């Protein structure tokens, strides 16, 4: 009797599964996937080549200094670098006095406490301070940016697929929204206060185009400050910000590979050297045993078979 009941319960489960499978399959075939505006108009990052690319890449100090200048004069108005300190700029070739001056003249002061009243205050930056965000907190940042939050840029090249190429594409990718897009997807029309950018995941970005005109910054080394150049330089700078030890990592990687190569060669030579004599001392067994080979040969000769 119990068997009957169990069989019945099992059959009921199987029946329910079959019905749901049928429902899913008929949904899949009856309502084909509707393409979205993001699927059709989102673009992959443009190609960008930096000196730090590849396993032997090194930073180009001049370029990093130019990129820092773009960050300082343009991006720092909205974005902090809370994992990078002013004194880290030594790595870009700035002297101690220059770093001190940069920190001292930074437009945004760092949070502090008034020593007399104990109230929150701000003070001038010093070399050990991190590059401050211009906003006191997230709410203030959102209030100033149409409810969007300008992210901290310390690790942004690691945090976004495409890295530096993505940043470069985003900065140079602002465009007028294609009429075709609005026609096909009226709901995806760029809302007021946002900006169309096909490299941004949802196509509409709250950041107004930060680099708009040639000569927005003037480079001390005479490089022509085109929008492309400024975007490339600031992307290179952000690669450095996210991984200041990249050049050292590449160099130690190379040393390790060379070490392993030598290790492999010496290992092979040592193996040859040891076995050269030792192998002869090992007596083969089984069919390879010389005694057995001789016996086999004898037997086939006795039987009159050719060897
Ligand atoms: C006027 C303020 C402002 C300035 C100046 C500015 N940004 Fe932004 N940025 C924003 C805001 C706001 C967002 C958030 C956008 C969003 O989420 O829609 C943002 C987002 C970003 C993002 C993240 C995009 C993503 O994938 O989420 C990057 C990268 C970025 N900015 C880089 C820069 C760089 C580089 C500069 C300097 C050349 C710069 N920004 C200058 C306001 C600014």
TrEMBL record:
GO CC terms, sorted: membrane
Membrane-spanning residues: 251-271
Cross-referenced Pfam families: Cytochrom_C1 (PF02167)
Cofactor note: Binds 1 heme c group covalently per subunit.
Record keywords, A-Z: Heme, Iron, Membrane, Metal-binding, Transmembrane, Transmembrane helix
Binding-site residues, heme c: 75, 78-79, 207
Gene Ontology MF annotations: electron transfer activity; heme binding; metal ion binding
Localisation per UniProt entry: Membrane
Domain spans labelled Cytochrome c: 62-171
Requisite cofactors: heme c
Highest taxon of source: Bacteria
Region (Disordered): 283-307
Principal location listed in the UniProt entry: membrane
Protein name: Cytochrome c1
């Amino acid at each position: 009797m119990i068997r009957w009941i169990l069989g019945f319960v099992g059959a009921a489960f199987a029946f329910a599964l079959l019905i749901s499978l049928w429902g899913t399959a008929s949904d899949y075939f009856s309502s084909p996937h509707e393409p979205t505006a993001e699927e059709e108009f989102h673009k992959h990052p443009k190609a960008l080549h930096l000196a730090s690319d590849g396993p032997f890449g090194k930073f180009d100090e001049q370029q990093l200094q130019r990129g820092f200048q773009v960050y300082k004069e343009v991006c720092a108005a909205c974005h902090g670098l809370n994992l990078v300190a002013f004194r880290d700029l030594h790595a870009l070739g700035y002297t101690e006095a220059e770093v001190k001056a940069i920190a001292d003249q930074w437009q945004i002061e760092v949070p502090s406490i008034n020593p007399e009243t104990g109230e929150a205050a701000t003070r001038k930056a010093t070399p050990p301070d991190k590059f401050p965000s211009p906003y006191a907190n997230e709410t203030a940042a959102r209030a100033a940016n149409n409810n969007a939050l300008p992210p901290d840029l310390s690790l942004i090249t690691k945090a976004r697929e495409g890295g530096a190429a993505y940043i470069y594409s985003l900065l140079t990718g602002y465009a007028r929204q294609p009429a075709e897009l609005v026609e096909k997807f009226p709901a995806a029309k760029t809302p007021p206060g946002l900006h169309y950018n096909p490299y941004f995941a949802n196509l509409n970005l709250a950041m107004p185009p930060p680099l708009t005109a040639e000569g927005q910054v003037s480079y001390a080394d005479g490089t022509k400050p085109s929008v492309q150049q400024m975007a490339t330089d600031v992307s290179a700078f952000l690669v450095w910000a996210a991984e200041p030890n990249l050049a050292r990592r590449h160099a130690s990687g190379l040393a390790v590979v060379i070490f392993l190569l030598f290790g492999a060669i010496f290992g092979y030579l040592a193996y040859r050297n040891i076995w050269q004599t030792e192998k002869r001392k090992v007596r083969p067994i089984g069919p390879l045993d010389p005694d057995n080979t001789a016996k086999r040969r004898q037997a086939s000769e006795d039987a009159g078979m050719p060897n």
